[in-house]
Amino acid sequence: MDLVELEIQDDFSTLSRLVQSVDDLLSDSSSPNAKLLLFTDNLVAEGAFFRGTSSNPKLFDLVLWLRSLEMHRSLHIHVVHVAGQ
After folding, report:
1. pLDDT per position as a tens digit, 8-30
2. Alpha carbons 74 and 85: distance in angstroms, whole number
3. Where exactly are the structural domains of the chain?
4. What pLDDT, on a 0 to 100 scale, did the predictor assign at position 8?
């Protein structure tokens, strides 16, 4: 099992690049039922993922992209809130 650990900042462009990297990694992989654990100190991003929507257009697009990855790549995504400093 491969473990990918990335630290991202509270920046949707960075998160967008992360999601693109995951998408690329999964398209090259034949690992069915992979799991992705996203740890964030951004409570808004975590809530948006669980609700499946956001009023912020960029965050909404990212949530939609993550949900699409779950469906089309047999990926299980878990977003976990970790209290920041």
Report:
1. 445 567 677 777 887 787 776 66
2. 34
3. 34-85
4. 46
For Cα atoms 16, 19, 23, give the angle at the middle one, nearest 5 degrees.
140
- What is the model's pTM? 0.68
The token pair at 10 is: 């509270």
Instruction: Give the DSSP H or E segment for 65.
Output: helix 57-72
Extract the runs of DSSP E, i.e. beta strands, from 8-74. Answer: 34-40
**What's the rounded Cα separation, in Å, for the pair 85 and 76?**
28
**37 — pLDDT class (breaks 50, 70, 90):** confident
Q: Coil, helix or strand for 80?
A: strand
